[in-house]
Amino acid sequence: MEAYADGDLIFSQGDQPDKFYLVLDGTVTITQTIPHTTGNALADLGEGETLGEMSFLDRFPRSAAAVAKGTAQLLAFDFAAFDDLIAGDKDLAVKWFWLFGRALAERLREANEKIKQLIEERVDSHPSGLPMA
């Protein structure tokens, strides 16, 4: 288990990943550096939610950063140890991958809704709709 105080960095965008996490208590804010913007918070994750699972699945560098919002207690899963664990227990592997799939699907739906809202705001703010170029 790992404990974090308010504002503590759990991992940075671009880091090479080596573990994923389960939030046991508290909240973790997922942020992403987006050029030419002021806000970069993507989501707040709470008890029972996972973070870092995308990097576990594809092994690419972190696409976002994670920062504790208030105090947070996380259960960390080392990639190599977890790989060994699920290799020996297919039922456990199915349960974890189901959890990852549902979490990623929910986050994709939320991202799609945010994109839709941004496009609608842009259309509403432009006199003739979206500019073509």
Q: What is the compact description of this entry?
A:
This protein is an alpha+beta fold and 133 residues long. It is built from three helices and six strands.
Notable characteristics:
six-stranded antiparallel beta sheet; about 130 residues; about 30% strand; alpha+beta; single chain; Jelly Rolls
What CATH architecture would you give? Sandwich
**What is the quaternary state of this protein?**
single chain
What is the third-level CATH name, the topology?
Jelly Rolls
Whole-angstrom Rg: 17 Å
- Helix tally? 3
Major sheet summary line? 6 strands, antiparallel
Query: Which class best fits the helix and strand makeup?
Result: alpha+beta
Low-pLDDT sequence parts? none
Number of distinct beta strands: 6
The percent range for strand residues is: 25-35%
By CATH's scheme, which homologous superfamily applies?
Jelly Rolls
Quote the distance from N terminus to C terminus: 50 Å
Fraction of residues in H or I helices: 25-40%
At the first level of CATH, the class is Mainly Beta
Shape: globular
Tell me, rounded to a whole number, the average pLDDT: 89
Number of folding domains? 1
Notes on the protein architecture:
It is a single chain. This protein is of the alpha+beta class. The protein has a single domain (2-125), classed as Jelly Rolls. The chain has 3 helices and 6 strands. It has helices at residues 53-58, 79-87, 90-125, and strands at 2-4, 9-11, 19-31, 41-45, 50-51, 65-78. Strands 1, 2, 3, 4, 5 and 6 form a 6-stranded antiparallel sheet that branches. The longest helix is centred in the last third of the chain and has 36 residues, at 90-125. The N and C termini lie far apart (50 Å).
